Automatic annotation (TrEMBL):
Source domain of life: Bacteria
Protein's organism: Mesorhizobium vachelliae
Listed InterPro entries: DUF559, Endonuclease_DUF559_bact, Restrct_endonuc-II-like
Span list, region Disordered: 1-39
Protein name: DUF559 domain-containing protein
Length: 170
C-alpha cells in the first residue's frame, strides 16, 4: 500500500473548505428579508418598464446626484410602490401619465403614504421630458423643506406629510 501525499488534500475538519461554504450551508440561518419575494419581483418588473420619463428622472436622481440625497426606485410602501423615494427625507416622487388626471386612486395612495409619514410629489411625465431641470429643482425644494404646504397646480401636486394637529389646511 503506497502512502498518499496528505499535503495536497483539503483539510478534513473545518479549515478553508468549511469557511468557503455559503453561510446558509454552514447552519447559520440567513436573516429574513424585509420584503416578500412577491413585492421584490413586482418592484423589479416595474423598474424594467419602458417609461422614458422615469428613465430620464432616474438618471438625475440616482447615485446621489441631486443634492447628495439617496433615492431608490419602485420602493414598496404598504400595498403601493413609489416610483422614486428618498427614505431619509421621507419623500416620494411620482410620475403620472394622462390616465392619472383626477384619479381618486392616486388620492387614496397619497393619503396612505402621508399616513406612513411620506410626503408625495407628483409630476406629469410630459413635464419630466420637457422641463427636467425645473422638475429637479422642485424635487430639491421639497427635500430641503422649501415646500411647506400642500400644493395643487395643473402641473404639480405636493402632499406634505408633517402636519400640526388641528391644522385647518388639512
Amino acid at each position: 500500500m503506497g502512502t498518499r501525499d496528505q499535503s495536497s488534500s483539503p483539510p478534513q475538519s473545518g479549515g478553508e473548505v468549511a469557511r468557503a461554504k455559503p453561510e446558509t450551508e454552514r447552519g447559520t440561518p440567513s436573516p429574513p428579508s424585509r420584503r416578500s419575494p412577491e413585492k421584490i419581483a413586482r418592484a423589479r418588473e416595474l423598474r424594467h418598464g419602458d417609461n422614458q420619463a422615469e428613465a430620464i428622472l432616474w438618471s438625475e436622481l440616482k447615485a446621489r446626484k441631486l443634492g447628495g440625497y439617496k433615492f431608490v426606485r419602485q420602493m414598496p410602501i404598504g400595498p403601493y410602490f413609489a416610483d422614486f423615494a428618498c427614505r431619509s427625507q421621507k419623500l416620494v416622487v411620482e410620475l403620472d401619465g394622462s390616465q392619472h388626471a383626477g384619479s381618486s386612486y392616486d388620492r387614496r395612495r397619497d393619503e396612505f403614504m402621508r399616513s406612513e409619514g411620506f410626503s408625495v410629489l407628483r409630476f406629469w411625465s410630459f413635464d419630466v421630458l420637457k422641463n427636467t431641470r425645473s422638475v429637479c429643482e422642485t424635487v430639491l425644494a421639497a427635500l430641503e423643506g422649501r415646500l411647506a404646504e400642500d400644493v395643487v397646480a395643473p402641473d404639480l401636486r405636493f402632499v406634505l406629510a408633517t402636519r400640526k394637529t388641528g391644522d385647518s389646511a388639512l
